[in-house]
Amino acid sequence: MNYELYYWPGIQGRGEFVRLALEQGGAEYRDIALLPEEQGGGVPALLKFLEGPDVARPPFAPPFLKAGRRLIGQTANILLFLGPRLGLAPRDADGRLWTHQLQLTLADFVLEIHDTHHPIAGGLYYEQQKAEAKRRSRAFLAQRLPKFLGYFECVIERAGGKWLAGRQLSYADLSMAQVVAGLRYAFPLASKKALRSCPRLRALHDAVFARPRIRRYVASGRRLAFNNEDIFRHYAELDD
């Protein structure tokens, strides 16, 4: 099956979790965000599905995936669909449910990371909420970051191998590696300190980004760089 991935141009965002799965799964897909508007890409392509009157089941926001006649929204939902098809989910129902649960927990984690720099409202600029962001980041780094990382470290330990959901790589591992990479960009000092006690998570990150297909994707130039318009943002004043 050929896939079309729709996301905002210029940022990795939540779309990157889907991209990593598509890349690792060897799927053929069109990344609409990378296409110019005259070739059917960009924001107009998104609005066609988000606001178009002919879409019976419109997604709330990107990312969303067009797979044949299906239009699937929400990152975790897309990965729940793709996982079995790309060999990135356990074969048994319990294992798939567990992997989905891990992905949903990662979604909670990502939201809390985002809210360190936008604690009041996403519609305000960071500069309009810097004092609140500083306070939010301090609480996040002191309490929530070690709690989330400790949880996922424990999950790997109990799984008995190097992956989260069992003996085989899953889409949850790809997403976990992306979160670790994002934390290292956003909070280089604090994340280095927090990850010292998480050797399994460090190893998972390295193992994911060492996989041949992921390495080729990173080297291809199609993987966008982290930047301060994205979920993971680096503000030095928040990293202490």
Ordered list of secondary-structure elements with their pairings:
Elements: E1 3-6, H1 15-24, E2 29-31, H2 42-50, E3 64-67, E4 70-73, H3 75-85, H4 93-117, H5 130-159, H6 171-186, H7 188-195, H8 199-209, H9 212-219
Parallel strand pairs: 1-2
Antiparallel strand pairs: 1-3, 3-4
Helix pairs in contact: 1-3, 1-6, 3-4, 4-5, 4-6, 5-7, 6-7, 6-8
Molecular structure report:
This protein has 240 residues and is an alpha+beta fold. It folds into two domains: 3-85, Glutaredoxin (3-Layer(aba) Sandwich), CATH 3.40.30; 93-211, Glutathione S-transferase Yfyf (Class Pi), Chain A, domain 2 (Up-down Bundle), CATH 1.20.1050.10. 53% of the residues lie in helices and 6% in strands. The chain contains nine helices and four strands, in the order βαβαββααααααα. The protein has a four-stranded mixed beta sheet with strand order 2-1-3-4, with helices on one face. Helix 6 crosses helix 8 (199-209). The radius of gyration is 18 Å and the shape is globular.
